[in-house]
Amino acid sequence: MNMALWLDRTARIMGDRPALLLGRRQVADYESFARRAAGLAATLARDGIAPGDRVGIFAKNVPDYLICLYAIWRAGAVAVPVNAKLHPKEAAWILSNAEATSCFVTDSLGDDLAEVTDLPLTRIGDDPFETACAAQPLDLVPRGAGDLAWLFYTSGTTGKPKGVRITHGMMAATSLCYPLDVDPVRPEDAALYAAPMSHGAGLYAAIHVRMGAAHIVPPSGGFDASEILDLSDSHGATSMFLAPTMVRRLTDAAKATDRRGTGIKTIVYGGGPMYRADIEEAVDWFGPRFVQIYGQGECPMAISALSREEVADRTHPRWAERLASVGRAQSLVEVAISDGRGGHLPPGETGEIMVRGAPVMPGYWRNEEATASTVVDGWLMTGDVGRLDADGYLTLADRSRDVIISGGTNIYPREVEEVLLTHPDVHEVSVVGRPSPEWGEDVVAFVVAAVGRTVDAAALDAHCLDRMARFKRPKAYIAVPDLPKNNYGKVLKTELRERLREEGS
Ligand code: AMP
């Protein structure tokens, strides 16, 4: 099934419902959303885009992003959404790797991209774009579950990004998991795009289209905590995907202005580790509005989920333990822990997390070597290390390459970071291994001090000694003004390790 079919169906029975909003201003109801997407699809086809061809979107978050996405699908083509925060040269590399034949752009991104590529660029929102949307609608091009819908380039915390092949079947599976495992969607709800539409937030558009909910794009085009609180209050019942760092910023902003986020229905958080202290504070302040998901581009948004009740119910005897987990397997996947020899480990034992099921990718785009080492006997090897408990709750330890091996013992940086974050002097921390002739690796903590505080190694050491095994505690604390992060806010541990290696040589 072509995912664009859901838009047609919603438009037919809920055509006059608000569909696309820029802030508070409605720019399209469902009838006009579907008509414009079908017109743009016709223009794409007329311009030679054939089913299976790749079309890029290098754009900041704008309501017409969804018009482009649905037009591409309607024409049977494959969307290649590129993170708007990437350098134009990186974007050009992705578009060329995908062998895209054209690309939608927003203003300044288009200017920058034009300098580094010859690809035909279509500017979203200008006159020719509007004319293209007004063309005679194209009939929907049928697609099967195995046909490509989206090429998703992994955020590339190491090496060049790889294109994950997301099929229409995977999109449907991820979409169905949302109401089953995350949050039911009603027409009166609104998806609010606070995170990049080129990533998970954009994938979640499909289920909101299916249910006839509104799509609100903040005019800032990015993450602005007070704008999110304002828009949520004015619309009501908003849902959004936020990275953990965004949850932290939202809580800080809401507390500073004494706002409880009453217009927010659900905040789905994930994409990186959420520290216990941060989520507890967020739930204490906002109430039961949070659901956690764990996923990766290779199984987008759909590996596990921790429900609203599980996040918020402090009366449950195992609440604290479960809050530290990423929840249970979502409905359409199996999750297991690899023993490294083709078998599975029993509950309680730690190893690489593997996943199988409908939302899992068939492989990377034109990269058989990476596919062969990542999808093994139908199982996706996630590169994340964790353990399952007897009830099926999954707790992540770390990415496999982040594990520190000191004196032959595995140390999971996340555990050390969790402890350090409970110290009042610590605002942010990242723990990595430093090569050591004696131990193989030493544990080193990069620490960003809290406002008005300083990093006192002796105090932090005492704090760790009080709370964890001696061998896990850092051998060194390095004060830094901030941590290097990628465009999605993930800490670049590779850079920190690199820095240690350079200093050591
Ligand atoms: P990406 O493919 O860029 O979305 O990155 C996926 C990776 O982010 C996963 O393999 C995990 O390492 C990490 N990740 C995703 N969700 C979570 C979560 N809820 N908690 C901790 N780490 C997560």
Helix content: 25-40%
- Structural class based on helices, strands and sheet pairing: alpha/beta
Task: Please indicate the count of domains.
Answer: 2
Bound ligands, named by name, code or SMILES? adenosine monophosphate
Text of the CATH class of the largest domain: Alpha Beta
Distance between the termini: 56 Å
Please report the number of helical segments.
Answer: 18
The CATH architecture assignment of the largest domain turns out to be 3-Layer(aba) Sandwich
As for the CATH topology of the largest domain, it is Rossmann fold
Task: Enumerate the strands of the largest sheet in spatial order, edge to edge or round the barrel.
Answer: 2-1-10-9-11-12-13-14-15
Question: If you average the pLDDT, what whole number results?
Answer: 94
Summarize the structure.
This protein has 505 residues and is of the alpha/beta class.
Commentary on this structure:
- This protein is α/β, with parallel strands linked by helices and 505 residues long.
- 34% of the residues lie in helices and 27% in strands.
- It has 2 domains: 4-388, Rossmann fold, CATH 3.40.50.12780; 404-503, GMP Synthetase, Chain A, domain 3 (2-Layer Sandwich).
- Helix 2 (30-46) crosses helix 3 and helix 11 (244-256) crosses helix 12 (276-286).
- The longest helix has 17 residues, at 30-46.
- The model has no long low-confidence stretch (mean pLDDT 94).
- Bound molecules: adenosine monophosphate.
- The site of adenosine monophosphate has 16 residues, from strand 13, strand 19 and strand 20.
